[in-house]
Write the structure tokens for this entry.
Amino acid sequence: MVDSSDTDTGWNTIGHEWVVSALINHIQSGHVYHAYLFSGPPSVGKRTLAIEFAKSICCLEKQGSPCGNCRPCNLISKSKHPDVDEITPRVSGKTIRQHKINIDEIRNTIYRFTLNPLELDRRIAIITNFEDASRLVYDAMLKTLEEPPGDAVFIFTINNVSSLPETILSRCVSFDLRPLPVSVVEQALIKRWGTQHQEASFLARISGGRLGWAVTLMLDKEALVNRSAKISQLVDLLSQSRVNRFSYADALRKDREQAVETLALWECWWRDVMVVSSGATNAAISNIDYQSEIQNASSQVDSSQAANTISAIRNTQDNLRKNANTRLALEVLMLQIPTIHLGH
Ligand SMILES: [Zn+2]
């Protein structure tokens, strides 16, 4: 039951079955819309779904699912199809690194979409991390979505829909992707990636159901080490003075993407504290390697304090994405995180 390796649908996705079946339905009924939005936490499978959807639309077999063998299926898998554009944010900024969707790339795509496709009967654009777009990008895209050229399909992925203008959101068919059950991630790691049971179980837990993140942690030992380092820093900060917290914030602000990632780990850790302080057992927590710290913290804050901390972290993430003053945003957060003495 937990095995969702999708041999039945032919989509190279794991989980998100209801989304896949809705999309297959759109293709088979001939009602593919102009704009789709896949939202959900990082590494939950949004881009994979977008690629599989594009393949399914373009596949020469026209079954509603990708055959995986035809020219469109092959080229789209490699991000090399001339009629399928993929736009991802690029790193920019000298003093403060951040990821941005390039307006010129968007304009090029919009221009190409006014021309006939080269091989297919339509053009498709996959635009990932759409929250990393500027007002200029949103405006250009909105104009295009108001009068989409031909049978063009735009597929956007985004971590958080709250950062998207309502005018764009209302023109998209949206699907919200949730983290997968831990057991599904565990089985996928074992079956698809040949991970040992014990490691798969651990990685699935700490990934919080984000399969892509579990795979990254499995393949990239440095990512695993970084994760622990970031959580340990958080745990240390809990008992630190304001001065020390501010100097940590100052270091963190220099790489906005790193800051956003760090905050995602903190959010996950605080969710564990909230879960335990509401009376759940350790079986419900993600960061099982920080059980004792989570237990300890949840004995010093109640679940509403933990919930407030989580929303403070989320607000800070939003502010960082919206280009707010990074230093100020992080300093405000430092003041909102409760002081907890964990004792070593
Ligand atoms: Zn195919």
Summary: Residues 274 and 341 are 17 Å apart (CA to CA). Strands lie at 35-39, 84-87, 90-92, 98-100, 124-127, 153-158, 173-176.
